[in-house]
Amino acid sequence: MTTQLETSTVTIGDRPLTVEEVVAVARHRVPVEISDAAWERVRTARAVVEGLAEDSVAHYGVSTGFGALATKHIPHEKRAQLQRSLVRSHAAGTGPEVEEEVVRALMLLRIQTLATGRTGVREETLRLYLALLTERINPVVHEFGSLGCSGDLAPLSHCALVLMGEGSVRVAGGDVVDAAQALATAGLAPVELLEKEGLALINGTDGMLGMLCLAIDDLRTLLTTADISAAMSVEGLLGTDDVFAADLQALRPHPGQALAAENMRKVLAGSPIRDSHRDPAACTRVQDAYSLRCSPQVHGGARDTVEYAATVAAQELAAAVDNPVVTPDGRVESNGNFHGGPIAYVLDFLAIVAADVASMSERRTDRFLDPARNHGLPPFLAHDPGVDSGLMIAQYTAAGMVSEMKRLAAPASVDSIPSSAMQEDHVSMGWGAGRKLRRSVDALSRVIGIELYTAARGIALRAPLRPAPATGAVIAALAERGSVVPGPDRMLSPELAAVHDAVVGRTVVAAAESATGPLN
Predict the structure, then answer these.
(1) Which DSSP letter does residue 378 get?
(2) pLDDT tens for residues 424-439?
(3) Per-residue pLDDT at 279 exceeds 50
(4) What's the pLDDT tens digit per position in 94-114?
(5) Predicted local confidence at residue 61, as pLDDT
(6) Catalytic residue positions, numbered
(7) 403-438: b or e for each residue (b if 16 or more CB lie within 10 Å)?
(8) In this structure, are strands 176-178 and 168-171 parallel, antiparallel, or unpaired?
(9) Are residues 98 and 23 part of one domain?
(10) N or C terminus: which one in the chain shows less Cβ crowding within 10 Å?
């Protein structure tokens, strides 16, 4: 499980940000400051760029055009216009508005790169960018516009536009207003971008990396929750916990598998329902279905994949992504570090494992509803089967989301559409990978919620047998948010929404841990 960030302020510049810090700033609005050493690096790098402004040798981003126009020399008197034109023309996003937490993550990560002293922006430009984040002046960024190469160009351009006093913003999650109005209200003045600054503001992998950090945080919680829901399904379906024994799991020493099995053992510990069918003479089943028996293997593989993705994220968080970059010895050099391939790959990988975890969860839900497989429970867990349909359509809802998740698992990173007159002839589509992963993570949380809801009802129908202490704590926590007990048919949507809130709000994990102690 992730731990809460134990600080009231995140400091940029002394070391790379962590995944937890990105989430804290993006999602929980923890304040940000920039270290004195970082400000000195920014000033030093800017002096290098200004020293090149009059150079007779062409320098990309300083005295040339961009992309396929990089060979065109730009005279000094047009260079401010060059930067303005770059940002305006690249602010070409379209489609739905991107969520505030994604935009905040994107802004934070661009600020971190600007603070490395490798981009050449001026101090006043960076201070204004930091002020936007602090004041919750959130640029309106759109769903479509990034190919994940040369950076997340359109999303970052919509942010850069606000520094110029142009474009649209939401202030503190309120209505959309003009950027100039929002800056004035906050007592801030727009900047005129000078040599290299427009390029430095838009040439990064910040959007896709921000979405990766948020997904890692979400999936760590959801995989622990999936262990809980799987354990509840094993309990409610009269399955066995013997297969989760530590020595059996150690025969296949994947770390995530061991952690998942340990969680399931803890949740099932002390279950009177489990104790009721330990006698081999009374229980003739030899093995449970794969969706029960193999839960640690699938959840564990997903967990290991998330941690691999976290390793990639940590490496990217230590990067200074811009082109060209200002080197410590004063050179300004072109490079290809803006290519989003490494991030795109793991974003796609996470969508695959999320879909598989959801697929297994839905199969456990379905077992509860089939009297041929649920070992004595009524069809669809209905109060009066035939008159009542019970949870029949809840399973349809889960199945529909799982089907969508399987489509979202098709990788974006294997696609490439050349751009910029074939100068940018291979792109990562990492932004698209991040957008579809967010939809997949949301669906996973809902599918797991439906399993929890179903398992809670199935366990209730085992009365007078009582559940394990951890299971009982989870059911009690869900009951506080809405009825999860059996009864005549009623509208399910509000109850499923309440369970979903308990999943994403970490209420389910907290309830289980009140009985088990810390879970993995």
Answers:
(1) P
(2) 878 888 999 999 999 9
(3) yes
(4) 999 999 999 999 999 999 999
(5) 66
(6) 60
(7) ebbbebbebbbeebeebbeeebeebbbbbbbbbbbb
(8) antiparallel
(9) yes
(10) N
Q: Name the nearest CA neighbour of 266 among 501, 504, 473, 484.
A: 473
Token pair for 19 = 């995944």
Cβ(145)–Cβ(92) below 8 Å: yes
Contact 509, 225 (CB under 8 A): yes
pTM above 0.70, yes or no: yes
- Which contacts of 177-184 are long-range, i.e. CB under 8 A and separated by 24 or more positions? 179/137, 179/139, 182/137, 183/137
Q: Say whether pLDDT at 208 is over 80.
A: yes
Residues 361 and 270 in one domain: yes
Angle at 173 between CA 167 and CA 174, to 5 degrees: 75
Q: Output the CA–CA distances (angstroms, integers) from residue 173 to 155, 201, 211, in the order listed.
A: 18, 23, 19
Name the DSSP class of 373.
T
- Domain of residue 165: give its range: 10-204
Query: Which residues lie across from 169 on neighbouring strands?
Result: 139, 177
- How many of the other CB atoms lie within 10 Å of CB of 469? 16
CATH number at residue 67: 1.10.275.10
